[in-house]
Amino acid sequence: MSRIVLITGGSKGIGLACARMFSDLGDKVAVTYNSSPPPEGLFGVKCDVTSTAEVDAAFSTVEEHFGGPVEILVSNAGVTKDGLLLRMGEEDFASVIDANLTGAFRVTRRAASGMVRARAGRIILMSSVVGLLGSAGQVNYAAAKAGLVGLARSLARELGSRGITTNVVAPGPVATDMTAGLGEKRLAELTAAVPLGRMATPEEIAATVVFLASPAAGYITGAVIPVDGGLGMGH
Q1: Number of domains comprising the chain
Q2: What was the pLDDT predicted at 211?
Q3: pLDDT of residue 60
Q4: What gap in Å lies between CA 202 and CA 179, rounded to an integer?
Q5: What is the H or E stretch that residue 43 is in?
Q6: Torsions phi, psi of 194, nearest 5?
Q7: What residues act catalytically?
Q8: What is the CATH number of the domain that holds 209?
Q9: Residue 166, in any domain of the structure
Q10: pLDDT tens-digit map of 190-212
Q11: Alpha helix (H) ranges present in the chain?
Q12: Residue 234 domain-assigned (yes or no)
């Protein structure tokens, strides 16, 4: 059965891998992007998740294009502005919270209205092992990613009676264009900290997302699923 899927930040990396995997299953897939449009073959909608008006417009465009409400939401859009606490300005802290955490609130609120009416839906929030472990130089990002856990678990309690599940995926280091720019030394440090001794592929993260959206995961809600090679075990 073809479902309407919306993935924020879906034009590259993990989001793009999710989009392709859902598309391969026969779902109707839309992705939002801010600066880089998605590859040809995917329905893309420009949307800055820090703008409530743009979020609402993006959902309206997707609903009109596919002829129905979003049934599966993957909230994946986010930014980083790293820096040590004593050197981090309030703007860098607030902007990362706004994009990663408040942005997830904006898109889930908009998606939930249609899901409540349908009495069905799947919400999947993309967190990070950093939100569970912490990371020096990323107090803003870690706080936002940790906040997604509280957001998801509260939504799981609010929306569960309407047949809507809400879950969190917490990736560890993933081989994407963003991590490729970290340099060989930093990549070696990241890999050395992972018990499996390597970085994940975007497709490995996407596989977990697709599972959480499947009928097989119908009784899973409020869960935090680590896909981190063992990096965050015990948290």
Answers
A1: 1
A2: 98
A3: 98
A4: 12
A5: strand 43-46
A6: -95, 125
A7: 141
A8: 3.40.50.720
A9: yes
A10: 899 999 999 999 999 999 999 99
A11: 13-24, 52-66, 90-97, 103-118, 130-133, 139-159, 177-180, 184-193, 202-212
A12: no
Sequence-ordered list of residues with C-beta below 8 angstroms from that of 58, at least 6 positions apart, any chain: 6, 32, 45, 46, 47
In a domain, 194, yes or no: no
* Distance from the Cα of residue 200 to its chain's centroid: 16
Placement of tokens 């950093």 in the chain: 130
**Residue 177 predicted with pLDDT over 90:** no
Distance CA 58, CA 36 (A): 16
- The Cα 120–Cα 1 span in angstroms is 14
Q: For residue 111, give both structure tokens.
A: 């998606």
Reported pTM: 0.95
Name the residue with higher pLDDT: 1 or 172. Answer: 172
Please state, in angstroms and rounded to a whole number, the distance separating the CA atoms of residues 200 and 178: 13
The b-or-e profile of 54-67 (16+ CB within 10 A means b, else e) is bbeebbebbbeebe
Sign of CA dihedral 116, 119, 120, 124: positive
Length in residues, the chain: 235
Tokens standing for 224?
Answer: 């935090």
Amino acid at 51: S
Encode pLDDT of 65-116 as tens digits: 999 999 999 999 999 899 999 999 999 999 999 999 999 999 999 999 999 9
DSSP tag of 235: -
**3-state DSSP assignment of residue 40:** coil
The token pair that represents 86 in the structure block? 């004593």
180 within domain boundaries: no
The position carrying tokens 């879950």 is: 167
- Residue indicated by tokens 């465009």: 61
Note down the domain range covering 57: 4-173+202-227
Instruction: Decide if pLDDT at 181 tops 80.
Output: no
